[in-house]
Amino acid sequence: MAGSPLLAPAAALYGAGVATRLALYRCGLLRVEKASRPVVSVGNVAAGGTGKTPFVRWLAGELVRRGLVPSILTRGYRRRSRGPVVVSDGAGVLASPEASGDEAALLARELPGVPVVADARRARGARIAEGLGRRVDVHILDDGFSHVALARDVDIVLIDATAPDAGGALLPRGRLREPLESLARADLVVVTKSEQEDPSAALELARRYAPGTPLFRARTEVLGIRGPDGAAVDGAAVPEPLLAVCGIARPEAFQSTLAGLGLAPVRLLAYRDHAAYGHVELARLVRAAQETGSAAIVTTGKDAVKLEGRVDLPLFRVDVEARVVETGFVSEVVSRLGRLPS
Length: 342
Prior knowledge:
Elements: H1 8-26, E1 39-44, H2 52-65, E2 70-74, E3 85-88, H3 97-100, H4 102-110, E4 116-118, H5 122-130, E5 138-142, E6 154-160, E7 188-192, H6 200-209, E8 215-226, E9 232-233, E10 242-246, H7 251-260, E11 267-270, H8 279-292, E12 296-300, H9 301-307, E13 315-324, H10 329-335
Parallel strand pairs: 1-5, 1-6, 2-4, 2-5, 6-7, 7-8, 10-11, 10-12, 12-13
Antiparallel strand pairs: 3-4, 8-9, 8-13
Helix pairs in contact: 4-9
């Protein structure tokens, strides 16, 4: 549902800015650069909460299993650094979550062997990734749908089954970064979180705005729980009372995931998406742990990279990835990459 009508003028102004920028790229007044390796863009038309990071993690892993070496090009959302940052050179993690951003840090940790570069100028990031001295076959452009400054060979757009139209209005009235009509630019559409909501409405929306575009469904799958040492643990081994902590767009989804794992935290602390966990946030966490007598903390993967070493209680994290249901998806992606190294 769209927000207050009072925000309609601001949304209209935002939309005019988006349309102008896209038009400048289309007519060539703004330059579109091309990387020397193929580019697969993964993005969405909505702000936050579509499961993009778990999807990128899964897709990169699938490409690796097919003998390809991807790099990940990301902006490094809400990082505390400027300019390009090599988060991972494919041999090891080189940057802190503060310097790289939480999502980039998580991807670097969970995808050993995959270079990760954070740079607002993604074409420059591609050149950096290609110059690290390691083989790179294909770039995955993380959150790249609206970043049209870098040419892409495949545009994958994600739609959240639990909120297909993202409020039905542009920012700030709704959560749309671009009008739904922009879905027509997609090469492939993936409806995420199909295990949480019947995907029919999202699929119908995609058929309306991206007619003829191949459609797929993805499920968010829980890979397991990892303990303070990174090893997989059973839910029964997690100490109680348990405090749950998350800084994500949809905290209720994390609560549901915990319930599915048989975990019943005494309290859920929900921070804003991409919370940096400064002194104020950490003080609130410590106070909640003391009030509840918690013996441990459970959190998400992207929150764990920011909390590790900063809390006194044992820290457990839930590992998830967004896996496409249809078996032919990755083959479809690879078939569209016409310039892979031989």
